[in-house]
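Progress against Task 2.4 (sequence-to-structure conversion) is shown through the following example record, which the project officer requested during the mid-term review.
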Amino acid sequence: MKILQLAPHNAEVLYWTAYLENKSLRPDQLRPDLVFPFRPETAEVLKTLIQKNDYWVLKYHLALIQWNNGNISSAKQLFETCGSMPGYAPFYAARAKFNMKNDSSRVLADLQQAAKLDKQQWRYGKGLVNYYLSQKQYEQALTVAREYQTRFPANYIIGMLYAKTLMSNKQYSEANKLLKSIQILPNEGATDGRQLYRETELMLAMDEMKKKNYKQALEYIAAARLWPENLGVGKPYDADIDERVEDWLAYENYITLSNEQGAKQMLDHILAFKPYQDENGAVYPSVKDLVTAWALQKKGKSDEAEKLLKNWVEKQPGNNLAKWALDAYNGNYSKLPDETRTDENFRVLQQWMTISKKL
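Structure tokens generated for the chain above:
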């Protein structure tokens, strides 16, 4: 008790004090912010207090503990019991995150309520946009992202998310302009901005290829190879950069322009790339191996090309991307299961295969 009396009178300290003194709690003193209970011992305290104190904040904090300890059914019941009583935005954000895996039908309403309760917090807008993107509701995602970009123009996280929604809506030129204007704070692993930039440039290149503007397409491909300083990540060593996708699109443009030397250089560059290896020397397969297979095929090495992709399927039989790459090489453009995680390389290659039929 002496230690608790010396501590700041936040909600968790008040819980323990009331429990030890067997007293009731005053709801006007129970502020939920800056408190994150997680200990099983505190759960026992809250269970006892809830019997005499029917306040949502106790149930909320107990739900957090139960969630943390894997007691999902108990956490779900506690969250549900709180209903719409809390006037506290983080509660709804927490319940939305909890229900993403446990009851997705309730997620959107809670995200919207969090955003409504705290219009000064950009994170709730981010949560809303990511929810719409996960549901493939791209127009709704764009509407919310644009609103938050207007409200928080200096926030580069919102800026990148806005660029992502523009790309999901195939507004590549607008995304390109935005990515040239935002300033991403450099930090370890800050590659998202550059990945968005690269994908945008390559998508624009393919738009020009559809219009038969092959020289303009090559300019976009050249831009995709750059590492703009405002995007928060430095350029790696040349040997560590995998540009097989860029090289393949450049090759296709050179072929159309009858630039045989340029086309040959691109194929040679693709085949010269050394795949990444782990500490045991095992090669990390990638969807970009499909490009290597195409290059081998152009060099008259179809057997070697197919073997490359079959080896990936054999090593990772449950990998949907491996199966997709092998099917694509054989001219069968299969649809990936919705839960498959993809990246910008997959999206660019998928787009290339779509437009290549029309060129």
